[in-house]
Amino acid sequence: MTELRLEDVSKVYGADGTGTSALEDVDITVRDGEFFTLVGPSGCGKTTTLRTIAGFEAPTDGAIRFDGRGVAGVPPERRDVGVVFQSYALFPHMTVAENVGYGLRFREPPDGKTVDDRVTELLELVDLEGMGDRDPDQLSGGQRQRVALARALAPAPDLLLLDEPMSALDAQLRESLRRQVTRIQSELGITTVYVTHDQAEALAISDRLAVMHDGRVEQVGRPQEIYREPATRFVAEFVGDNNVFEGDARGRNGEYPQVAIDGETFSLAAIPDGTDRVTFCVRPGALSQAADHNRLPVTVETSEFLGETVRVNGRWNGRRIVLQLPDVPESDELTVGFAPDDAHVIDRD
Ligand code: ATP
Q1: Mean pLDDT across the stretch 306-327?
Q2: How does residue 44 score in pLDDT terms, banded at 50, 70 and 90?
Q3: SS3 letters for 248-276?
Q4: Which of 10, 12, 13, 49 to mutate to test the pocket of ligand 1 (most atoms within 8 A of CB)?
Q5: What does each C-alpha distance from 211 to 160, 221, 231 come to in angstroms?
Q6: How far is the CA of 347 from the centre of ligand 1 (A)?
Q7: Cα 56 to middle of ligand 1, angstroms
Q8: Ligand 1 closest atom vs CA 23
Q9: Residue to substitute in 12, 26, 47 for testing ligand 1 pocket (most ligand atoms within 8 angstroms of CB)
Q10: Ligand 1 binding residues, C-beta < 6 A
Q11: How far apart are the CA of 29 and the centre of ligand 1, in A?
Q12: What's the ipTM?
């Protein structure tokens, strides 16, 4: 099993390093056996990061290490990584079994197994037993991705790299494939790096994740940390659908430090010493009509019924506010508040 380290990895595309800067000082450690996700909007550098780990791109600067060993100059086929891409990329003229066995042309099956035994074992692992003789065009999209996963895993690689493997599938298939991928990953205990632009998916499936923006890592943490304690405004808005506020520190009023925004003061649980300008966020679900503290009037613009809850988009003093309420509001004007403990101060920006 393998620990993966990226040390200050930068990547500039184009000859002589004058083209697009895709990665800047990316520093990540993926622990042995971890399911680690790279998440961020289109163009933030997720795929480039994965391609440098796989060896399809060379970093312009920095180092990549598998279990402490630098892999600079090692070609992809000698890195012991299994890769699954967004598009199925199966060989159409080969059967399912031949596709899965393909990776074993260059590498002996593990544990002295025959190729046939290993292929059968992998098809069982991805719940496709008995389908080895089919052609790829006789499979559904979800089944094809499972074949691609079985092919990537057949040589028992040290690392599994998955680049948006579910993005071509409909919502229901995505969920079932997601469950299968996480089950297989934890069964095998293989160190895995998963790429997605879908923040909900990233929070749902990862042991830890890195939120990327403009070629940089904004924050690395467990899903709960990233969601509850975003380190930057970008993470707060991208991951948590948060309401972000900015104001001026105004000393204390009794128990709580105060922040002034447009002449109104708000109580927060804590503000780091020496902070004059305070940025904090409050999750939509923490703004409630029943809260006693920090009341603010909101003008409702739209309501979306989501089943268990209603997402309300509104404005307070011209600022966009998102609420998550138990019911559709009866009036376009309502007042909500938040507890001081529910405000999280963003300390890096
Ligand atoms: P997406 O979610 O859309 O796939 P991404 O987060 O994976 O995006 P990358 O594909 O890594 O982002 O791209 C990062 C940046 O590098 C973008 O600005 C992109 O245009 C640029 N880029 C990617 N590949 C190349 C290339 N081969 N040559 C030049 N620039 C590239």
Answers
A1: 94
A2: very high
A3: EEEEEECCEEEEEECCEEEECCCCCCCCC
A4: 13
A5: 19, 9, 10
A6: 29
A7: 13
A8: 14
A9: 47
A10: 13, 19-20, 22, 40, 42-48, 197
A11: 22
A12: 0.96
Kindly report the protein residue whose alpha carbon is nearest to atom 20 of ligand 1: 43
Q: Of all atoms in ligand 1, which is nearest to the CA of residue 21?
A: 16
Tokens matching residue 7: 């040390």
pLDDT tens-digit series, residues 117-151: 999 999 999 989 999 999 999 998 889 989 999 99
Instruction: Specify whether the CB–CB gap between 176 and 205 falls below 8 A.
Output: no
Q: Calculate how far, in angstroms, residue 196's C-alpha sits from the geometric centre of ligand 1.
A: 13
Buried (b) or exposed (e) across 116-134, using 16+ Cβ within 10 A?
A: eebbbbbbebbebeebbee
| pLDDT tens digits, 48-105 | 999 999 999 999 999 999 999 999 999 998 899 999 988 767 898 999 999 999 988 8
User: Cβ(44)–Cβ(22) under 8 Å?
Assistant: no
Q: pLDDT for 237-258, tens place per residue?
A: 999 788 999 999 998 888 899 9
Domains (ranges, CATH) in the chain? Answer: 4-232 (3.40.50.300), 241-345 (2.40.50.140)
pLDDT in the model for residue 347 = 79
Strand order in the sheet with 343-345: 264-267, 256-261, 243-253, 277-282, 343-345
Closest CA to 145 of 118, 117, 164: 164
Helical segments of the chain, H only? 46-54, 96-102, 115-125, 141-153, 171-188, 199-205, 223-228, 233-240
Query: If DSSP states are collapsed to H, E and C, what string results for 176-230?
Result: HHHHHHHHHHHHHCCEEEEEECCHHHHHHHCCEEEEEECCEEEEEECHHHHHHCC
